[in-house]
Design goal:
Blueprint lengths: L3 E9 L8 E3 L1 E5 L3 E2 L11 E5 H8 L14 E4 L11 E4 L3 E8 L8 H6 L4 H4 L1 E7 L1 E4 L3 E5 L3
Parallel strand pairs: 5-6
Antiparallel strand pairs: 1-2, 1-6, 1-11, 3-4, 3-10, 5-9, 7-8, 7-11, 8-9
């Protein structure tokens, strides 16, 4: 995996604690997150998870879709969890994200953990803040930025 990839899915949910559903497109708002998502406006403005991480869980026999881990942006081609905090990512034509957190503590055992005995979010889930807003949709490019 490299420093360039693609957005596989854009997902949101109206309530916290539920799976997110894929949508055709979304808008990333500065210091807010994905417009219309329950987690927008929180300290974890936007969540990202690599499709390759989801594939690791599929290999355990689970049927999973984008949004099942409550991620806003499902990515492909970039191991987002291997990037350091502070890394900046260009999403689509305009948006700029900065990674603020890698992994998360899961307070409750989710349905995925109950089925598989493990979950990728504690180590592979990535959270970012929106530095520059813009539209985002499946198929958009995502890349690591070193010059902004």
């Amino acid at each position: 995996m490299g420093t360039k990839g693609a957005i596989i899915a854009v997902c949101l949910s109206a309530e916290k604690g539920e799976k997110k559903r894929p949508v055709a497109a979304g808008a990333l708002r500065v210091d807010h997150g994905l417009v219309g998502d329950a987690h927008a406006g929180s300290g974890r403005q936007v969540s990202l998870l690599a499709s390759e991480s989801i594939d690791e869980m599929r290999a355990l026999g689970l049927e999973l879709s984008p949004g099942d881990f409550a991620e806003n942006l499902t990515t492909g081609g970039i191991a987002v969890h291997a990037l350091p905090v502070g890394t900046r990512l260009r999403v689509g034509r305009e948006a700029l994200l900065e990674i603020t957190q890698i992994g998360k503590e899961c307070h409750d055992r989710c349905a995925i953990f109950e089925q598989a005995g493990t979950c990728v979010m504690p180590t592979h889930g990535v959270f970012a803040r929106v530095l520059r807003g813009g539209a985002v949709s499946a198929g958009d490019a995502i890349e690591v930025i070193t010059d902004e």
